[in-house]
């Protein structure tokens, strides 16, 4: 097959089982107050730990052959652990106080490589993803001060397609200089901000300021860890970045990493990460955190990039794919000294070739007579001094090339056994020395005919790669482009606008493969111009008994409403429901704005089902705030009252005898009700003092033994519970008899007291 286009190498740096982490080198994050850090580091070292990351509020260390429980035990009992090693505890041992220890999960680059189209060596090429996302229809505002922090494998400092006056960087331990190369990182950075300079390619936000943080080695794409990313988030903040772009990920979540990105987002930034390339519904992190925008990939014809992961939407639609961008065959920058183009020449006829990943295939030409080795499952003396032509199949690519080399072969060409290019990977740190390329099945007859051939290998500075690694910088670049023209917006607002204006792909509305669809820069910019950063303003006035439906908010956002209550109103209540598993909290206050710290009633159950009942309604305006403790959607809010009439009689019963709440136990308190009538309408008021209220589960038990959970575990570190709960689960129960409140504490380290509780029947 003649070569009529720019042909790229196929280099696999994809997430795969080949990057398995050895258990013996398990890393752990130790959260610690900074004033105790020196003592904790010293203790960790004495116990065999090797410090890998030293960041604000935490360190990361490896403990060879130690499990998480073993490390927790050693660090929690330092005198005993040191004695077991024949060491004595020093005077600073009392300062070796830590807050938590968790697994430091590995993170990987997320790209698979394929061929490309066009020739950026002769003129500037606009990659299809630029046009598809409308980035060519919006002008980047270079004076806006926009900066993207690219956490990856570094950047080639010799590349002509970057504005080096606007690029800074940081190194991570053991990865080398941030600007000494890094094929994956260079490709990612080009998609974000390659210059509009009449050569090469152009990025989504041409010339945007970038800060490069290198957490992967450029030589082998060796993995980073969650602690590296948490530390990187701090460095991105220090560098003044608006956006963090991460074309990487891996399994497992931890609080340290999540908190770092939560903090960056809360400060007004935007965090973007790749969904992953395993083509299944596995959730990858950091993309799986709610504060991080998860990006999927699409093709140039708006089809799905088949390897893009598609996790289900668990609690919200902020922990699954939110939008997509071009992820299949994306052309961008590449290190200037890394070979990307290969062509096979036989008798003046040229044929397409791709360079095998992890092969010793330097720029230049290798040539010689050919020898057809079949599938090369063993050595063959006929290959001695010749270029081996090998069929794909049966054994690994590495073993095929090894057999060729052991037979005296001078080079290897592996022919695909199906249509399309072949992404052969020889494996990290292999000892193979002969150059290796792959070829198309359509060219097999010419390649196996025998005779002399030459293979030209060229470093061009550009390459076409596939993966959610390529889609992620596409979205990061579009975000920077749009944001540069609307600097009054926050990162969260830009995130919501990109979703609101995406072109719907796949099933109508949001779906797990495309999210809300492919990002559109012009549509997003026009949307902000017309509607502002927050979008169209909806009425925030509540009508008696009429539900506001479809409410949605991202973590940390507040939705505010007002409700007019006339004189003589009774039975005033405010209720939320729904939420798709998210957590919406409810705050109500008469006369002024309601919040968690200023309210007449609050309800924080740990779900989106909340209730506030106002015992004595006042005439005037009640202010209602629905606050997203975690991202929620499809919540309904209804406020209601009864007009005029006499105030219903409320029968109130209380238990004011305090009871201790101990760790990992259930505390019970009873009230005897001597009254007849239904229990259908009731409220329960609870007064609890506790140092970690998120550990508590409150359950009301009726005289008949029926139960209703008043408050679920929330995991929050807030103190005390002084709340009122509507009781609606006992419509068929008589109120007469013993009612019991059960308080279960499900964790250690924090205790408290049930001061009193009251049940009110109406």
From TrEMBL:
**Do the record's keywords include Nuclease?**
no
Q: Which InterPro entries match?
A: Galactose-bd-like_sf, P_dom, PA_domain, Peptidase_C_arc/bac, Peptidase_S8/S53_dom, Peptidase_S8/S53_dom_sf, Peptidase_S8_Asp-AS, Peptidase_S8_His-AS
Kindly identify the residues recorded as the active site: 152, 184, 469
Cited Pfam families: P_proprotein, PA, Peptidase_S8, PPC
Q: What is this protein called?
A: S8 family serine peptidase
Gene Ontology molecular function: serine-type endopeptidase activity
- BP-aspect Gene Ontology terms: proteolysis
- Family, per the entry? Belongs to the peptidase S8 family.
Q: Where is the signal peptide?
A: 1-23
Entry-linked Gene3D superfamilies:
2.60.120.380, 3.50.30.30, Galactose-binding domain-like, Peptidase S8/S53 domain
List each copy of the P/Homo B domain by range.
Answer: 646-762
By its UniProt entry, which PROSITE patterns does this protein fall under? P_HOMO_B, SUBTILASE, SUBTILASE_ASP, SUBTILASE_HIS, SUBTILASE_SER
Gene Ontology terms: cellular component? extracellular space
Ordered alphabetically, the record's keywords are: Cell wall, Hydrolase, Protease, Secreted, Serine protease, Signal
